[in-house]
Design a protein that fits this description.
Number of domains: 1
CATH topology: Four Helix Bundle (Hemerythrin (Met), subunit A)
Strand order of the largest sheet: 1-2
Protein name: DinB family protein
Largest sheet: 2 strands, antiparallel
Distance between the termini: 30 Å
């Protein structure tokens, strides 16, 4: 049976426990998770790392979605990246998990969304304009700037993932 299609996440009401100023970030991350799940359902594992027209692979986008959320939310907490985070960053374009499927990588992204939502729930509204440094150069941002960029960057890569997945599925 066909289930009625839900409206986009931002039209479903507030996300419990998230301050009103961060609702757009929460909505964007939840929407991204739903879309990623849809786009990679039954995606052929043997095509996960294909780069049509030298575009980034589906595997890259899935790894990057997870990694960028982890990194930007770390900076939003006023922390620097750990050795493990730097290693994960260096591996985003490669095939680090033998036998990994798109669903496996989407599952890692989903867990990162859960972790990010938990951090949003713990974020004090009074800290949103506090300065935060980004990267080794400690480029200037704020807590809000980082959280907003995390949502925007995630949505951008979800769009790229959709295009790449469609192209790769239709190549054969």
């Amino acid at each position: 049976m066909n289930q009625p299609k839900l409206p986009e996440v931002w039209l479903r009401g507030p996300v419990a426990g998230v301050t009103p100023l961060l609702q757009p970030v929460a909505h964007a991350l939840l929407q991204a998770r739903e879309e990623v799940s849809t786009y990679v359902a039954d995606f052929p594992a043997e095509r996960l790392w294909e780069k049509p027209a030298r575009m980034a692979s589906v595997g890259f986008h899935l790894m990057h979605l997870t990694g960028v959320l982890d990194r930007l939310f770390t900076y939003a907490q006023g922390q620097t990246l750990s050795a493990d985070q730097l290693k994960a960053l260096s591996q985003e374009g490669s095939e680090p998990f033998a036998g990994c499927t798109a669903e496996d990588l989407a599952g890692l992204f989903s867990k990162q969304v859960d972790k990010s939502l938990a951090q949003l729930r713990e974020t004090n509204e009074q800290t949103l304009l506090e300065p935060r440094g980004v990267g080794r150069a400690q480029l200037p941002s704020t807590t809000l700037g980082l959280l907003f960029h995390a949502a925007e960057h995630t949505q951008r890569h979800v769009g790229q993932l959709l295009v790449t997945a469609r192209i790769v599925r239709n190549m054969y």
